[in-house]
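Pilot study result, target chain (138 residues):
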Amino acid sequence: MNPEQPTILYVEADDLTRQTVARRLQRRGFDVVQAGSLEAAIERGFSDESVDLLLLEPSLNSMSGLEVHRRLRRGQPTLPTIICTSAGDQFPESRLQAEGIHAHCCLCKPCRFDDLLVTIERVLVDSQTNDRSESQSV
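Predicted structure:
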């Protein structure tokens, strides 16, 4: 992971939302790979192993967003994920934990950009800390 410019795979079906949020994240120093469908997310996620974080709207049409999360985690078991959804009631804490997603990584839409940014930064720091401690224990 490039700590100076982490890469976020952002999966959101709504073009305007995806483009607006991606542009704002890029202004904050993130490299953003956009996907408008779950299939595109899987393709981009597997082709770009430098993805540092998955930002996911899980209630997209053809495939469950959590299925994308599962498939990408097979190739990158420590890939941190943030869910940003208007259907928060469909993702109780127990379901998130079963998927390996921390409850603080689920944001309900509409969410403030500042809240999203704080969550992204916290998850990336936690991920780096976990990576360092795993490499030290080997």
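One observation from the pilot: The chain has one domain: 7-136. A full batch analysis is planned for the follow-on phase.
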